[in-house]
Amino acid sequence: MPGKSNPTVVNSWNEWDPLKHIIIGKADHSCIAWPEPALDAKVPEDSAMKGMNGPRPLETVEKANSQLDHFVDILEKRGIRVDRPTPIQWNRAIGTPDWQANSMFGCMPPRDVLLTVGKEIIEATMSYRCRWFEYLAYRPLIESYFMEDPKMRWEAAPKPRLTDRDYRRDYLNEKIGVEKRLKWTAEKYFVTTEEEPLFDAADVCRMGKDLFVQHGFTTNLKAMDWLQRHFPDHRVHAVNFPGDPYPIHIDATFVPVRPGLCINNPNRRLPDDQRKIFEKNGWEIIDAAQPAHTSPPPLCYSSVWLSMNVLIIDSKTVCVEASEVNQMEQFDQLGFEVIPVPFRDAYPFGGGLHCATADVYREGSCEDYFPKQV
Ligand code: DAV
Prior knowledge:
This protein is α/β, with parallel strands linked by helices. Helices cover 20% and strands 21% of the residues. The chain has a domain at 19-249 and 343-362: L-arginine/glycine Amidinotransferase, Chain A (5-stranded Propeller), CATH 3.75.10.10. Strand 16 and strand 17 form a beta hairpin. Delta-amino valeric acid (DAV) binds at residues 202, 248-249, 251-252, 302-303, 305, 351, 355.
């Protein structure tokens, strides 16, 4: 509990300023969600998860929780305050007047749900039905931050309807094939339509005054319009990454590591026209190192590129998954102190070290890193 000398502060403007306070998720009661349009489009066609629904095996939950707890220890030993969500029984049918779902998902990846911009924490709309109620696991924390920091701003983005009109029927086909998926995603023909604003918080990359937002399966252009009107002093940029057949969440694709430097997934390069703003402002974009693995762990939603899903502690210190030798080596060569964190048992529950966290407080203020706009 925060003492008088260490009051709760909500404040985080980017991905790299010195980290003081963070949320780390929990794997308890996590489920493999039942078929629904946007989730089906994301789970790879050959995944063993197809047809497996309901609570994840208890021994996998325990292994994931033990790695999550170890990650908490590592950060706390460095003086970073860590809070945990309150999992609910995710294996429960839910519904709204518009739809029903047989279960929920979990609260291992808070990054997907909570978007911290300055003194504000926004609960994202989300775009899967099974994730509609996920914010509930974070409410005890958010309510406490609201009470403890009189300047904290708490927002919930407009709750989406998530009717069938939100999803393209073409993606309901079981066998689309990677080739067609690559063509569709390159043409920005994603599973989500422009019916209403939809976004996952993990599609938003915060770089001070500029927010770079991935247009893909989980975030649409209407959400970017909402974010731009919501943050009138920021500049919201739509980015997309041809080469990804299952584009969700920017944090295994394009990751700023310190002011002036981003690593980009070499299979999912930022298109030339979208690089201009980085070039004009003296930013360098380099290829991320190759993942150390050729396949993700069993029953995992994400790709091997969780290798680059790192948590930056400050612009000289980074947490990297402990088996990702190539990514650790790249950070070492860039002059970072690398903290190896074993985390592959947690991957199936919703992602890597960045996904499993959500910022509460980083030192620093809102800087303009891109004064020359394109
Ligand atoms: O490469 O599968 C994972 C992002 C998870 N939040 C990928 C993206």
